[in-house]
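User:
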Amino acid sequence: MKLSSRSEYGIRALLELAQRQGQGPILSREIAERQDIPDAYLNQLLLTLRKAGLVQSLRGPAGGHQLARPPERITMAEVIGALEGLPQTDRNGAARDDRTDAWAVRWLCGELDEAVTGVLCDVTLETLLNRKRERDGALTYQI
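Assistant: Predicted structure:
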């Protein structure tokens, strides 16, 4: 499965905020630079994530963005759902066509959608942070 750039950039922005949690609000310009995301596009994504209740935005000299909830309480289902919606297959749409076995394809698509949604519900921002820490630890060599 491949995620859209919208979801990928949104997840990367949230990971940046999660990694810097406790440091106060982070400027979108900093997130854009560190994650190599076009600034204007990032601002659109942050607005969407704010409306979904995943990010808080603060204005003023000490302003910026921060997570609205702890990383362990933000699921990828919420993130991708906010950015582009979760998959939904019409399982009954092909059932009306008795001349073909299109129902089988619809059933399979429904099963796949449920499996993907299940994984997205199980994976939190904290899960991704832990994977990053494991990966970074594996890349560190002791001499």
